[in-house]
Every structure is written in C-alpha cells, then in structure tokens.
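Hi P.,

Sorry for the delay on this. The queue was packed all week, but I finally got your sequence through. Input first:
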Amino acid sequence: MGRRNTFAGPYLDRAAHLRQDPAWFDDALADQGSRVAVVWNSRSLITAADPPRAALVDLSLLPPDLRTGDSLILLGRFSGQPCFVLEMDTLEPPHWLPEPRFEDLRTIAPRLPADDAGLLSYARAMVSWRRFHRFCGRCGAPTLPSRAGHTLICTAASCRHEQFPRIDPAIIVLVSDNDRALLGRQASWPPGRYSTIAGFVEPGESLEDAVAREVDEETGVSVDRIEYFSSQPWPFPASLMLGFTAHAVSTEIHRRDRELEDARWFTRAQIAEGGALLPPTQSISFSLIEQWFDSDGGPTLRERTAGQTPR
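Then the structure:
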C-alpha cells in the first residue's frame, strides 16, 4: 500500500453488491442503527467537538418523507453500520438537527480523522453527481434513482437511459530540474500562492501525454522522465487527481495559454524562506512539493516552513 492522501483510503465497505438488492436496501432504511451524513448547500455536517468529527445522524431523526430511496444514497457500511448521504438545499439548515454545524469540506478536512474526511468526500461527490444529472442527457426527461442511489434512470418510456456516477481525471505534476521546482499561480488564488501544474485529461489522451501537454501549454517547459506519484479523490465537484513527477528538459518559461497569472522556478531555499504560499497541506499538490523538497536529505519542508508566511 502506497501513500494515503486526504480523502483516500479504505475508510468504509462500499458494499457495492448490496446496491442490487432492493430488500437489503429497504431493511437498511428500517434499521435503527443506520446513519446519515447530511450535506447542506455543499457543506458537510460535523460535530462541535474539538477536534471535530463527521456528524452522522441516526436515520430515525430524519422526517419520514426523507427516509426513502428517492432522497437517500447508500454509501456503504461505515464502522459496521449502513451509512447514507442526504442532500438538503433549503435556505436554512434543517431544523430537525439538534446542533447543526455545517462546514466547507476543503477547509475542515485537515482537522478531521482520515476516515471521516474520506467518508464526507465520498458523500459530497455523490450528491454533486445527482444534482447535476436530474434530467436525462439523451432526451431531457426527469431521472429517478435506482440501485440504492447509484444509478439514475430516465423516466421516459421511450428512452430509459441509465446514468452512473462519473469522475473527471486530472493530472497534477511536480516538474523539477533537480534543484528547482516549477510552480504556477492562478489570478483567483490568495496573494503569493503557488502550486504545481495541473489540468484535465482530454479524450483520446494518455495520462503521460496529458502531463507533457499541460506543462507545455501553461509554462512552455518540455519534460521527460514522467513518473506516477499517487492519486487523490477531489470532490469539488468530481475530480480524481493523478499525481506525477517529471524532469525538465527545458527551463525557459512561456505562458502559452495564459491560464496562469504567473509561473516561476523556486529553489528549496526560496520556499523555506517563505517565497511562496504553498497549497493546503491536505492537497496532493502539497505532497508533491513536500516529496521533492525533502529528497535532498536536509530539514523537511514542514520543519523549515512551520509558522512562516510568504514574503
């Protein structure tokens, strides 16, 4: 087993075979031990404790009209119990929750236990998929959930097209010339933030081809020695980040597609001195930078940058 990034890992039994069993699903809906992760306006329900945890509510707390297969999506078995997700898009938080506290998952994830972060990531991805596929992409008719919420079926008798959860593969790469790392920034990011190069994989393209293309398009740098690093689910809304490292063949920067506001080379010393505000520690981008930074055998990135702010 390789590295475990935030939102990844065997945090639950997905029980995929049980999605095909309507009787089991009905029993789980009637089980007093079943739990529910609630997502309200894209925010996840967490406890008020410090440190926080995922707040999973008893299924019995839900109003009866929400304890149905039309409202709930089965996630699987979490800590041995059936676990569902419910999305609420009301103006106010659900009144039937005893102490509602909803947080942006990207912000709260570093403080959550790894299994809790993974579960809430999965929950958010599933409700996002359902929200964006309420109508059939083939004929435009409304869709209805089936197979414990993991299939959406067109209601038109002449169509009956089935839709399944999909993810968008994206590459993310740490390019280096050994002594320097190539980082870029988007105009919408906080001042001083730089991150690794990333982009979506296009149809008919291998992951390695996508790495080379994205680096060339965004920075004009040519690369070789492309090697897989690790992957990370990124449910904002439905990406799978596929991490790579690559060696720079050329080093002169030309921002060809102007997607980045800036791109530049950073030495370890510049990063250690706060020359760049790095991406959040829960991101695979930070892990890529960290691995490169620590590979010289000196003090680690976390040791060198603890408590620093960018210049």
